[in-house]
Amino acid sequence: xxxxxxxxxxxxxxxxxxxxxxxxxxxxxxxxxxxxxxxxxxxxxxxxxxxxxxxxxxxxxxxxxxxxxxxx
Length: 72
Hints:
- It is a single chain.
- The protein is mostly helical.
- The protein is built from two helices and no strands.
């Protein structure tokens, strides 16, 4: 079974902040690109196996399930 994956604007903003941190503060733009690719790949796996991730703390605030996926 394949599930619909909805990536919110808040997630995109959080990814951008973290990637900028890696690229600028850690002076490692290549690592930032690698981390973003890994994060995006892992997000895509939620389409086929979302239940491996626990519900996020904010799950109770929504009418649908919000899962938590930690990347590194």
